[in-house]
Amino acid sequence: MAVSALFDFQTLNVYQLCQWTAWLISLFLIYNVSRLYLKRRELVATYRPFPGPKTHWLYGNAHMYTQNGTEMDDIRQYSEQFPYGFTMWMGNFLPALLICHPEYAKAILSRQDPKHKMLYDFVVPWIGRGLLILSGPKWQQHRKLLTPGFHYDVLKPYVKLTSDCTNVMLGKWEPLASGKESVELFHHVSLMTLDTIMKCAFSYQSNCQTDSENEYIKAVYEISYLTERRIRFFPHHSDLIYYFSSHGSRFRKALKVAHLHTDKVIKLRKESLKQESELEKIKKKRHLDFLDILLYAKDENGQGLSDEDLRAEVDTFMFEGHDTTASGVSWTLYCMAKYPEHQQKCREEIREVLGGRDTVEWEDLGKLTYTAMCIKESLRLYPPVPDIARELTKPITFCDGRSLPKGAVVVLNMYAIGRCPSIWEEPEVFDPMRFSPENASTRHSHGFLPFSAGSRNCIGQNFAMNELKVAVALTLQRFELSSAPGKEPLKLSQLVLRSVNGIHINLKKVES
């Protein structure tokens, strides 16, 4: 009897324990489901004034972000239906107002809202918390510190270096100019812009253009691709899940290559600055290059940049100074191939300015007026950075009376803004005269944003424009460009504007 009673008592305790566990699990699930439901209702209410495309019940609008080269034009078409902006959902809990009108862009860029943390944090393992990511007082400190590195006295000697690097690329194109095969631009141009930034900003002879298997370029491609894929695949937003995924493993391997390259550049420059001959060169130049500014920088307490901050700024500028410029140069040359009448006008101007020289000089840049107009029109249609994201630190009311509260996320789509039909007449037409001096005064101040605008505009935009002018001028002087039949590029936003199938053109040597 005693044993039987004890057994019944133990059975009862186990039963009660299971019952209580089930109740606790149920309460936990109900609490979290209720919390998510309320969060979803709050988000829907926040973005209700900004209707957008129809969403899927589970993944929102994520199905639009494919890799088939149509998403950019899909967004542009939606911008015609929703002229100022519309809400896009990545799943059920990541909405953002996608801005496609200059007036809305102006309202955002006149503020100091930080970059959207969730999206930009995915690039932090690569470029650290440098000027691109920072906000607040530390951003202001770094911006003030780095601004002298882009003074025109500093940029002047870079024109010769850029010419040299461009000529190396063009020399490699010589054997390709008589063949029937098209040339894929982006890879060649990326090597050239990396070579340029290494020599100009870091006093580093990379020889990357003659190294056919450049590991850094491959690593940058891999990191860009994997970062974009992570943003678009919600389970990979979890650091733990991403770490054990195949993409996470690939990301870490590419990251190691990129950081080893950066560390090597910094180390070599530190060692060279110990030499008296190198210090004499700096005295003769009477200015510091970008990396030298970072190495010599001191705050008000006499403290230099930490190793972490130093690497972050070098990685940031190495990415922004070569990958975005490579996109701009590649798409501009694509436009020159696509619109031969404008290409010929540029070539005539270039011949008149250069007079047969194969090196562009500082004084030439201001004389390449029509070429500059063509470059800007190309950047309008194909902005190197297709979108940027901000998280509002205070409420905002737009020009049409609609509002968003603090904490809302906005994405400025430069591709749609550059093709906004209410601002640009016949926006799909390639018309460089939009940027003529007489038309500049009538253009909307925020209708052309390849380098963003406001206090957080691109610090290196003058460097980039100079490099674009040099690359385009020397290329058109030596080669006639034409479209490659059947190889129309499929546009892809992958941190910078790329193409799924590459950017192909045909080359023909210009007869002297």
Automatic annotation (TrEMBL):
<keyword id="KW-0256">Endoplasmic reticulum</keyword>
<feature type="binding site" description="axial binding residue">
    <location>
        <position position="458"/>
    </location>
    <ligand>
        <name>heme</name>
    </ligand>
</feature>
<protein>
    <recommendedName>
        <fullName>Cytochrome P450</fullName>
    </recommendedName>
</protein>
<dbReference type="InterPro" id="IPR017972">
    <property type="entry name" value="Cyt_P450_CS"/>
</dbReference>
<dbReference type="GO" id="GO:0016705">
    <property type="term" value="F:oxidoreductase activity, acting on paired donors, with incorporation or reduction of molecular oxygen"/>
</dbReference>
<dbReference type="Pfam" id="PF00067">
    <property type="entry name" value="p450"/>
</dbReference>
<keyword id="KW-0479">Metal-binding</keyword>
<comment type="similarity">
    <text>Belongs to the cytochrome P450 family.</text>
</comment>
<dbReference type="GO" id="GO:0005506">
    <property type="term" value="F:iron ion binding"/>
</dbReference>
<dbReference type="InterPro" id="IPR001128">
    <property type="entry name" value="Cyt_P450"/>
</dbReference>
<dbReference type="InterPro" id="IPR002401">
    <property type="entry name" value="Cyt_P450_E_grp-I"/>
</dbReference>
<keyword id="KW-0472">Membrane</keyword>
<keyword id="KW-0408">Iron</keyword>
<keyword id="KW-0503">Monooxygenase</keyword>
<keyword id="KW-0812">Transmembrane</keyword>
<dbReference type="GO" id="GO:0020037">
    <property type="term" value="F:heme binding"/>
</dbReference>
<feature type="transmembrane region" description="Helical">
    <location>
        <begin position="20"/>
        <end position="38"/>
    </location>
</feature>
<dbReference type="GO" id="GO:0004497">
    <property type="term" value="F:monooxygenase activity"/>
</dbReference>
<keyword id="KW-1133">Transmembrane helix</keyword>
<keyword id="KW-0560">Oxidoreductase</keyword>
<dbReference type="InterPro" id="IPR036396">
    <property type="entry name" value="Cyt_P450_sf"/>
</dbReference>
<dbReference type="InterPro" id="IPR050196">
    <property type="entry name" value="Cytochrome_P450_Monoox"/>
</dbReference>
<keyword id="KW-0349">Heme</keyword>
<dbReference type="GO" id="GO:0005789">
    <property type="term" value="C:endoplasmic reticulum membrane"/>
</dbReference>
